[in-house]
Amino acid sequence: MFFLYLSVFFSLGLFVSARTTRSSTSFLVLLFVWVVFVMVIPRSRSSQPGRSGHPLGPRGHSQKDAFLQQIQAEGQKGFGDWAQKNQELAKTDVKAYQEKLASSSRTTNRS
Questions:
Q1: In the prediction, which pLDDT does 95 show?
Q2: Residue 78 is part of which domain span?
Q3: Is 68 a domain residue?
Q4: For residues 71 and 64, is the Cβ–Cβ distance under 8 A?
Q5: Per-residue pLDDT of the chain (111 residues; tens, 9 = 90+)
Q6: Maximum distance among all alpha carbons in the chain?
Q7: Residue 35: what pLDDT?
Q8: Predicted local confidence at residue 57, as pLDDT
Q9: Cα dist. 49→44, 64, 81, 94 in Å?
Q10: Within this chain, do residues 46 and 65 fall inside the same structural domain, yes or no?
């Protein structure tokens, strides 16, 4: 598929370069054609009725949203468990609790 894409643009480049007298004109025409192929055509296809523009189709958005909600719920449950486990530390030494909370969030963000 890549070679077909490459050969179409290569052939188009040769055709436009042969038809124009200045290289700057050829460049601008080919840039316009490329923008139309890459930006305009895919957007117009996704705005058709019955097409969502999502790779998984119309169900893709709801599946993604459900997955994100599941991840958020698990994260909140995990934080709740962590906070409950370290509740005594929060009562006795607030600064140590805050440092532990900050270090655990840095560890989580790395993964």
A1: 82
A2: 61-111
A3: yes
A4: no
A5: 788 888 988 999 999 999 999 999 999 999 999 888 888 766 666 655 555 555 566 666 677 788 888 888 887 787 777 777 777 777 777 787 778 777 776 665 555
A6: 82
A7: 87
A8: 62
A9: 11, 21, 46, 57
A10: no
Domain count, the chain: 2
Please indicate, yes or no, whether residues 44 and 75 belong to a single structural domain of this protein. no
- 47 and 1 share a domain? yes
Residues 105 and 72 both lie in one domain: yes
- CB of 28 closer than 8 Å to CB of 34: no
The whole-number pLDDT of residue 20 equals 92
Q: Do residue 7 and residue 43 come from a single domain?
A: yes
